[in-house]
Amino acid sequence: MGIKERQERDREAVRGSILDAARELFVSEGYRNVSIRKIAEKIEYSPAAIYGYFPSKDDIFYALAEDGFRLLHTRDNAAALDAEFNKLEPIERIKAIFWRLYEFSRQHPQYFELMFLDRSVPRINQGYERFAFARQMKSHLIGQIQAAIDAGALPSHLDANVVFRLLTMGLLGAAMMRLSDRLGPGENADTLARDVLAVTVRGLQSSSALESTFVVDCLPDVTPASEKAS
Fold it and tell me: pLDDT, tens digit, for every residue of 143-162?
């Protein structure tokens, strides 16, 4: 290994350490309560060293969110999985797509909490260019919903974008209930999540016109609630 390759490897290792420390601190203490200095102290670096990798705390969040979206949308053995996926009926295909969101909350809870639960994080749309791949994935998912509508598996009056939002909200809610430990004795989070998905899909299949309308094409909304209310 040459000097340049070793330097690049070492730099990536430090960058990874910064992101790991920041992710843990953001989740345990809340984004607004964590400073660059606190991240530096956790990995025993100087704040100036952190700034050599990330210009600001927001940039650290964007890097973590980018990693999170890639974990959410990247699957191992993609070719084999796609072959099985394409054999499914349209409705079962939609269920499989959205079940991945709930699985993400189980497999990567820190990323999920940071991306979807912390109300103090910056808006994803401020890092618009770097999340182009996530917008493409969202368009693909909405395309699958539209294909189900076109095939008659969902009513023709439904807006695929609204269906996407409703299904996302349902699975996010189930995941949040589990992560925030709000379930009652004997309740099974996975079973409830499956029921939420099944009931929502059946409701959509038999629904009349919905009141919800599609407003803007954006990534899953992580805008702080305090800003939405203003």
Answer: 999 999 999 999 999 999 99
Closest CA to 149 of 226, 95, 94, 83: 94
pTM confidence score: 0.80
Q: How far apart (Å, rounded) are the C-alpha atoms in residues 70 and 137?
A: 10
Strand ranges (DSSP E) for the chain?
none
Q: Name residue, tokens 């796609």.
A: 82
Q: CA-CA distances (angstroms) from residue 147 to 87, 143, 220?
A: 14, 6, 21
Q: Which two tokens stand for residue 72?
A: 């959410």
Spatial separation of the C-alpha atoms in residues 58 and 60, rounded to whole Å: 5
Summarize pLDDT for 210-229 with one digit per residue, the tens: 888 875 555 555 444 444 44
Count of all residues that appear for the chain in the document: 230
Those residues whose C-beta lies under 8 Å from the C-beta of residue 44, and which sit 6 or more positions away, are none
Q: Supply 18's token pair.
A: 């910064």
Domains and CATH numbers, the chain: 3-55 (1.10.10.60), 66-228 (1.10.357.10)
Residue written as token pair 């990323």: 111
